[in-house]
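Weekly structure sync, notes
Attendees: PL (lead), two postdocs, one rotation student
Agenda item 3: pending single-chain targets
PL asked that the sequence for the first pending target be pasted directly into the notes so everyone works from the same version. It is reproduced below exactly as submitted, 529 residues in total.
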Amino acid sequence: MATSGGKLLMFKTAVLCCCIVHLSSAKLFPYGADHGDDELTYDTSQIESHRMDLFFPTPFMGSGLISEIYISSVGTISYGKLQNSKLDSLTSNVVMTPFMADMGSGGRIFYRQTENDIQVLSLVSSLMTVQGVSFSPLLAVVVTWEAMPSPDDPSKTNTFQAILTTSAESTYVIFNYHDTMAWTSSSGSRKSYAGIFAAGDMLEKCGQPLKNSGTDQIWTAAETSTKSSVRGQHIVDVTSAMECFSFESPCGEAPALSRAKAIPKFENSDDNILGWSFYAEMACKTGLSVSPGVATQQVQCLYEPDYYEYAWDFEIKECVDLSATRKFQVMLHDIVIDMVNTNDVEVIKSKLIPEINKLLRNAGITDVVVEIDELTKTVEVKSAFKDGEDMDSGLLSDQAMPSDTWSLKFTIFSPTYSNKELTAEGLQTQLLVLLSGESEILKSSSIAVQDLTDKCLQDCICFIREKSGKNCKRGHLPIPLRPDACCGGCNGKAYASSKKVCCGGRHLYDPSRAVCCPNGRIRQGTVCS
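Predicted structure, written out during the meeting:
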């Protein structure tokens, strides 16, 4: 947890860069008045900007859309109007830039938006095809900064280009550099930047800088590439949430979990007023998950008014090996769901999960994963007079009528290192008592619990514990599970405990300290090489 007002800048070693040796160099997309471009005139005493309304809302860095952008005289395309060229002072904005710097006078800035320029759209499509991406652009914004002089030496100029393009499903930004870069920064402490940068309004920052951005070696952007085989060309997919290579948060460093990797991200969504979210995505390590089919979870930075500080959300689920857990299926019939004013099944499920976890905690059951399998309205069969018949006819028919109650079936995955004494009978008794009155949302008097733990898993772990397996109980009696046991060949599946994982069906390892390599060997650390 971060201390009040604390912030920390976290860097990843990865940068938007590939290798320096290429067979060809980038060619600028056609631009200029002959190609229908407008021109942005500028005065070096201030930042000049042009607001461009996009032809249609464009997907951008998440589930949110953008409808307008700003083109500036300091080498940027941005979400909002830019106030200055200092990246450190950026707030409430997203900037895409091949070269963000204070420019000298004498350069020219061309821009256009097109949805019918066959030449440009074909160039984009062909470029993406070469990279192995199927992409049919419906719109392209081409911005070219031509011969932009250094404010210190007008004889030195840089020419570069940014293309924002979308298919209405996917969106990319492309940076092109014409030849080499003749200058890198202006006098004093002014730096130049290249890449994509997002900033919120409360010490939140996220960036994907090109290599050497912010240094005098930024000229290497014209000599290297990203997701391209062409020198001086960088292609970035900006459709989904952006992974942050540099990250700053009022909560400080992202949460550290031994069984998950923290990936800082920025997302453009509709979750708040600004529509933005800076968060840490916790990605479970190989073989682990937080629920069936789900290996990631978002952790938000929240303000705690009681303590006057920011802190990461403490509701973080443990990553476990679900194939090595005890499984209990719970069936509730004729349940009453209070305080939920909707019949939307998915909405009700989302509200039931925390309520079920609360019930289990009250029963002393912890560290479990809950998955709702079924939720359906209870159907009652009632007798009624047939259509067109009256009471004197005495003709009745049975009709299925929805009731106010529900049927619920969910599975509890319990790791082998916790709830060791838990049984189906004991769980059924505890839940029956709690559901009779303690729950605020769920109430039921009809419950059935089944132990669905894999019999092979039980026998396998028992065999490891007993060495010979002579004393392993068989038949209908469940065998207590021992933590950190592993074996292979059990119906062809390698089983593991929920704390450790099997590698190649032969070796047990801790994924927080080592990795399982393709050859079936275990390597300490995070990589196989």
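Discussion points:
- The first helix runs from residue 118 to 130.
- The CA atoms of residues 435 and 443 lie 5 Å apart.
Action: rotation student to compare against the earlier draft before next sync.
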